[in-house]
Amino acid sequence: MLYDVSSIDADAPSPEALFAIRVAGEVARRLYESGHELRFSLVPDPERVSALLYDSDGLVLSRLTPTRVLEIAGGRPAYGGNG
After folding, report:
1. Domain limits of the chain?
2. This prediction's pTM
3. Which residues have a Cβ under 8 Å from the Cβ of 68 and sit 6 or more positions away?
4. Which of 45, 51, 80 lies closest to 67 in space, CA to CA?
């Protein structure tokens, strides 16, 4: 697909970036409504990212693998179910 970039503001996000932000927002809303939150951290190794699933009280429920994070992003339940 070709885009006419002559009218695009150089500071504006690309259509792909806007779509990714919308999807991320939908996943975050779904997690929030189910009483969960996904947090990413660079600690202790700044070269690696870890993902933790928290409950609404801020307690860690589990450390997530990259595969599990992608499953949640794809619509699978965060906790307590197989989808």
Report:
1. 28-83
2. 0.68
3. 51
4. 51
Block residue for tokens 């932000």: 21
> Tokens in use for 77?
């339940």
Token pair of 58 as six digits = 């801020």
What are the tens digits of pLDDT across the range 39-61?
998 878 778 889 999 999 999 99
Amino acid at 81: G
Mean pLDDT calculated for residue range 18-30: 91
Of 46, 43, 49, 51, whose CA–CA distance to 73 is shortest? Answer: 51
Residue 32 tokens read as 């929030």
Under 8 Å between Cβ of 57 and 68: no
